[in-house]
Amino acid sequence: MKLISICVPMYNEGENIYAFYEQINQTLEPLYPKYNFEFLFINDGSVDDSLDRVRELRKKDERVKFIDLSRNYGKEVAMAAGFDYAKGDAVITMDADLQHPPHTIFEMIKYWEEGYQDVYGKRNERKGESWFKKKASETYYKILRKFSKIPVLSGVGDYRLLDRVCIEGIKKLRESQRYTKGLYMWVGYRKKEVFFDAEERFAGETKWKFSSLVGLAIDGITSNSTFPLRISTFLGLLISFISFIYMLVVLISTLVFGNPIPGYPTLVILILFLGGFQLLSLGILGEYLGKIFMETKDRPLYFIQSYNDEYPMNEEDHK
Ligand code: UDP
Ligand code: MG
């Protein structure tokens, strides 16, 4: 009998936990006894009753397990914790807010049995999202793909089934500045997509603020590519070349034609343009420097309060 771990990061999802459990449990019923399941909730420092509800569930159902992180680390790290503790032959990552329809799991398992090792869900159409957000995200993924040469797909999130080989691979990537979507692609293995309709959030609100999305977007590019550093080099070369030509023009027009000094607007434009460009380059350098700084600390990704209220396991066990 194969074991499948359902990994669910949760941050203040109290209102969703029971509904989530009911729905997934019912949906997966027909898969017994061919497959066994564990429901691994990762409590990412919730300040509501999320964890109490999971404890309630565990009283009735031994398959429910949980890791209680020592604080809120963010979804990317919560998922890393899930990968560390999941025991299944395959791991399915899902959101707790019922935006990922459980019945897609049948299809995922079907492809898994056919030998695919990373079966990822692709959203058909996002409900309740503005035109602007959709366009912005599409454009972003286009840029990311160009830069990173890692084909991170748009509309593909964290609803996916990963075979044990992928999990073992991802577990070795201990970077603290995580962009998990890039990691799935980086480890490779046989991939297959399945489509699903993203539902609206069952209860509560999204945890993403616009600023954190922009942050994640920058992380996505800077963790997967050093191309932005090249931009400064290329533009620097280009600007030097143009300046050289312009210098000749100015020299000749002064020496040959003896023009008086024109060019106040040119000066202002040049100063502003170059100033802005230099700041941008510094910012790009800073992004990478910051990443290096964070990674060189080499801190553990997270600490846990408990595993099923029992014992804090050692981070080292999982490396
Ligand atoms: N989440 C988490 N830690 C956080 C933020 C979110 O574990 O710091 C979880 C959240 O509980 C949910 C999933 O990540 O299960 C997706 O979050 P959300 O629904 O807010 O994101 P969206 O669906 O809007 O992208
Ligand atoms: Mg959601």
TrEMBL record:
Segments forming domain Glycosyltransferase 2-like: 5-164
Key word Lipid metabolism present: no
Record's bilayer topology term: Multi-pass membrane protein
Alphabetized CDD domains for the sequence: DPM1_like_bac (cd04187)
Primary subcellular site in the record, as a coarse category: membrane
Protein's cellular compartments: Cell membrane
SUPFAM superfamilies: Nucleotide-diphospho-sugar transferases (SSF53448)
Cellular-component GO terms for this entry: plasma membrane
Transmembrane region(s): 234-258, 264-289
GO molecular function (one): glycosyltransferase activity
UniProt keyword list: Cell membrane, Glycosyltransferase, Membrane, Transferase, Transmembrane, Transmembrane helix
Family: Belongs to the glycosyltransferase 2 family. GtrB subfamily.
Protein's recorded name: Glycosyltransferase
Native organism: Vagococcus silagei
